[in-house]
Structure to design on (409 residues):
């Protein structure tokens, strides 16, 4: 296929040989034209556009349009797409009763996995993954309803009434209102927080074949319905090595803060470097980036803006994070392994400042990543050559043996 890439399928067809590559370290699972990462340079492009330019000049719905359709919308396309999305922001009222089956203290990711999968039971006209019209309607529904579902999961947990979507607000403004508004008073959207949230959504919108996206592709390759495939992505994202890292990172910062803050950073770093401790510097390291994750830079800037807006410039966790980063970037352990901050290192501090509870951070990530999952799913299903994903294995178990005579019950 290219100078560094072998198409092993030909070898398999000729000889039956296959490769062994746990964790897909050196295996491309598909061809894709959506997102490009140059891990050595620290570059991220959506459909060819640098993430820095998208985060500065576009909003999240422009980014959704781009990921789904391959190009940025013109004014008419932008207006039409916006209208289409806001037409679908409400969820079926029955979803409230479904939600009530959960304990109030359930983790929002458990709730969200259920709610997203449950959509397939409510929208029977968009469950055939092989029908392009069904896929399109499911895509719009998912993008439109994720903020409503995430906000409902939050309101349910805190015991407050749900807020219906308000469609004259922006995508992010509407989400802020559904989260923090109450029926008792008018909610005024803070434009700095609205922009910051929108940027968080843009930065998380897609990231090529990460674990959750690969999960969505694999799940969708069986021909299951689009809502079920996206629910599988939500479930995968929850893990602390993936989207759950933002929650784990903030918990880590709070732990160090409780133990003495910046003064304890040196001691903590020694633990991280001790392989027997099992402690990792959460929000650091990446399978593909062997340089600074460009999203982390943008997130740090957003963090500065939000903390300034809220008068929290002296936020101790932000200071702590900066100190950890400073030390790590000069430390042989991190330098030699090319470990840099990833998108999760600063995103938790921004979200916490906005008022989002720590256990909802990964839910915000899922909301934003939904469009990427759908775009990738669409790309796979639209390829006439797509096959069900079916990895092989190297069997290491018992050889053939007989059930002992007399075992029969
Ligand atoms: N802290 C300390 N050491 C680390 C860290 C870290 N955060 N990340 C990697 N290392 C070390 C590993 O122990 C390993 O050391 P070794 O060579 O001495 O054995 C080396 O760096 C290479 O790391 P791997 O785990 O082999 O790299 P892999 O590509 O498999 O893992 C991952 C990448 C999972 C992201 C890892 O860096 C990690 O666990 N980071 C912390 C969790 C995190 O922030 N995840 C979010 C990723 S971004 C996202 O999903 C949005």
């Amino acid at each position: 296929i290219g100078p560094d890439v072998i198409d092993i399928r030909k070898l398999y067809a000729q000889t039956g040989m296959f490769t062994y590559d746990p964790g897909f370290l050196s295996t491309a699972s598909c061809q894709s034209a959506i997102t490009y990462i140059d891990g050595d340079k620290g570059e991220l492009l959506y459909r060819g556009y640098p993430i820095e330019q998208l985060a500065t000049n576009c909003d999240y719905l422009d980014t959704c349009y781009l990921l789904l359709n391959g190009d940025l919308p013109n004014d008419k396309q932008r207006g039409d797409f916006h209208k289409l999305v806001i037409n679908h922001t409400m969820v079926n009222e029955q979803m409230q009763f479904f939600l009530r089956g959960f304990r109030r203290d359930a983790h929002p990711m458990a709730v969200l996995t259920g709610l997203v999968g449950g959509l397939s039971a409510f929208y029977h006209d968009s469950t055939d993954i092989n029908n392009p019209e069904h896929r399109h309607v499911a895509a719009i529904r998912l993008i439109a309803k994720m903020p409503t579902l995430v906000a409902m999961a939050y309101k349910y947990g805190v015991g407050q009434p749900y807020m219906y979507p308000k469609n004259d607000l922006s995508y992010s403004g509407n989400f802020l209102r559904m989260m923090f508004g109450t029926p008792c008073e008018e909610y005024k959207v803070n434009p700095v927080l609205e922009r910051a949230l929108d940027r968080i959504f843009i930065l998380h919108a897609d990231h090529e074949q990460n674990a959750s996206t690969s999960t969505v592709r694999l799940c969708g390759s069986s021909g299951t319905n689009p809502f079920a495939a996206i629910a599988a992505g939500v479930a995968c994202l929850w893990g602390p090595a993936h989207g759950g890292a933002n929650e784990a990172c903030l918990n880590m910062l709070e732990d160090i803060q409780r133990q003495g803050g910046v003064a304890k950073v040196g001691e903590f770093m020694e633990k991280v470097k001790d392989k027997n401790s099992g402690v990792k510097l959460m929000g650091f390291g990446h399978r593909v980036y062997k340089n600074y994750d460009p999203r982390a830079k943008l997130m740090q800037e957003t963090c500065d803006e939000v903390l300034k807006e809220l008068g929290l410039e002296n936020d101790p966790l932000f200071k702590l994070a900066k100190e950890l980063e400073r030390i790590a970037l000069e430390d042989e352990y991190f330098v030699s392994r090319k470990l840099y901050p990833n998108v999760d290192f600063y995103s938790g501090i921004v979200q916490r400042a906005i008022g989002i509870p720590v256990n909802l951070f990964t839910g915000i990530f899922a909301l934003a990543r939904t469009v990427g999952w759908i775009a990738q799913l669409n790309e796979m299903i639209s390829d006439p050559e797509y096959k069900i994903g079916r990895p092989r294995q190297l069997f290491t178990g018992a050889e053939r043996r007989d059930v002992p005579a007399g075992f029969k019950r």
Remarks:
- The two ends are 56 Å apart (CA to CA).
- Residues 208 and 293 are 14 Å apart (CA to CA).
- The longest helix spans residues 132-158.
